[in-house]
Amino acid sequence: MRKTFGDDVAKEMRFVVKSVVGEENFIDMQPNMSNNYCCGGGGGFLQATGFQDQRRQYGKTKFDQIMATGANYCITPCHNCHSQIHDLNEHFEGGFHTLHLWTLIALSLGMLGENEREYLGEDLCECGLEDIAE
Amino acid sequence: MAEAALKLGGPKRTSFMDKVMEILPEGGNLNLCLTCGACSSGCPATGIDGMDPRKFLRMAALGLDEEVMKSTWAWCCTQCQRCVRACPMGINIPALVFNCRASWPREDRPKGIRDSCDAALKTGGFSAMGASSEDFQFVVEDVLEEVREDQPRFKDMLAPINKQGAKYFLNQNSREPVTEPDEMVPLWKIMHMAGADWTYGTLGWAAENYCLFLADNESWEKIVRQKAKAVDDLGCEYWLNTE
Question: A61: buried, middle or exposed (CB in 10 Å: 19+, 13-18, 0-12)?
């Protein structure tokens, strides 16, 4: 986003997220958009043998940002970010859930299947399941 | 106490930074550093291995090539470019870091990244996890069949592969078909609900390109060109990258 399409795309993403979860349930992290911090999963970091400690040290900045929001769910539109933030949460014991954006979009549209709920917490894991069976 | 100052001497020699400046537009502004530290203050990699973006750039500017090259910090920078955004002079530090990676002997670069690059080069989909196009197609068809049977609302949903003339060519991170195939389904449902005319391709289906992160210029360019060709060959208008 910072490297290519800029803040306009970041704003569109926020429109989608707010439409999906409701404006009152969206908490932006600080700093955000083009001033945001990288999670540390990309650039090959997740795959770099022997760099696990450094990757988590890097990711601590992102972890602290997420914790400061107090949110129960962190949305990650990219698979690398998802893997990294999921790992940071487990390693630093953050107690939040890490979700692919498509999970929330499908959930909000009432079409998230039973096998597609791996990353939802107890509060949402059965939400709308009765609709999908029909 | 601060460490003792470095003593510099001898005639100026062509340095690593000079070479990088030659290949970057505007020389990457690499010689415009005001030493303000805005880069380092907002870099999550600051402090890792005793390095930070300003220190890395200053060392390169001072011709301390050996020290720059032997630091493993180049592999701890994710190329996120926050430093470029923060820099009042628009200095392209990530490009310096990238070329530092590229200057390492290939066999000394981090094994996991190298293996991911090599695996991609061996498959038609360029999958960094080494998944074959046949396996990818099998997983997609298998998961789709299950959804169509179990979820009546999606009995007509499609996940086309190699559909000539589709509007959108969609790629997929290898982790999904290989480790959590059910995670592909919400994406298909969104495309289905939007009425999008889309397709996967057995050639170039994988979204990732670890040869880029390995700084293997020849290989990452080859992968990008062949993926783009796969999109063109199917006559697709848009290439949707899910990464």
Answer: middle
